[in-house]
Specification:
Layout: H1 2-17, H2 23-34, E1 42-46, H3 52-57, E2 63-68, H4 71-84, E3 89-93, E4 106-112, H5 121-131, E5 132-142, H6 152-161, H7 173-182, E6 186-191, E7 199-204
Parallel strand pairs: 1-2, 1-4, 2-3, 4-5
Antiparallel strand pairs: 5-7, 6-7
Helix pairs in contact: 1-4
Bound molecules: S-adenosylmethionine.
Length: 208
């Protein structure tokens, strides 16, 4: 994980300036997520990056604990929060592996563009399930590189060796669906804006 942390710290400035690849899909994901908000909600975001999504969601919920492994990403996120006057986000530098969260304590976990970057993805999905209250939601957007980008398997190791790419796992949408179901989630919404686009899922921990 050390290598990925170094990569993301170096990437932070460039990442914060990069344009959203598919603005229409991003807006729809925001809207689908917001449809589940109530003003009392406690959210955890893992891999929040520069906080763009947390900042947009914050006015609709009670509090967001927005976490990321990269201090440089979080410095930019904190600056943006201060500039926009958003005060109900706590930004915290932590790997998803080190987060302490009481079981059953959260209404929602956001994992946006991160699950494919984790070597222990299935463990993280199971932990998110444990953190959620019965009826709580895990919302994910995940790049599934084995659906159409499998050729990158041959290029990526070189980029990683040169420090130009982070750890990335290759998975299919079908595989991800099987993994979230195996963790106990019900798939409430499963949307892919295009054949090779990131898969957006709204996943519910069944009510007790
Ligand atoms: C592709 S960016 C996505 C950022 C943001 N969620 C978004 O959608 O724009 C991936 C983020 O995950 C963070 N990350 C990578 N590995 C992590 C880990 N093990 N724990 C927490 N954050 C991690 C990186 O620092 C980076 O900010």
């Amino acid at each position: 994980m050390r290598t990925s942390k170094t990569f993301w710290n170096k990437a932070a400035d460039r990442y914060s300036k990069s344009a959203i690849a598919d603005p229409a899909a991003y807006e729809k994901k925001l809207e689908l997520t917001r449809g589940h908000f109530t003003p009392e909600m406690e959210l955890l975001e893992i891999g929040c990056g520069t906080g763009s999504t947390a900042l947009l969601h914050a006015p609709h919920v009670k509090h967001i604990r927005a976490t990321d492994i990269s201090e440089n990403m979080l410095t930019i996120a904190r600056e943006k929060a201060e500039a926009t006057g958003v005060t109900n986000i706590t930004f915290e530098c932590a790997s998803v592996d080190d987060l302490e969260v009481a079981n059953g304590s959260l209404d929602m976990v956001l994992a946006l563009s991160i699950l494919h970057l984790l070597p222990n993805r299935q463990d993280v999905i199971r932990r998110a399930y444990a953190m959620l209250r019965p009826g709580g939601l895990l919302i994910t957007s995940t790049v599934c590189l084995s659906d159409g980008y499998g050729f990158l398997k041959f290029i990526l190791p070189v980029a990683q060796w040169l420090g130009q790419a982070p750890y990335v796992d290759f998975l299919t949408a079908k595989q991800l669906e099987a993994e979230v179901k195996a963790a106990g989630f019900e798939i409430e919404h499963n949307w892919r804006p295009g054949p090779k686009k990131a898969v957006f899922m709204v996943l519910r921990k069944p009510a007790a």
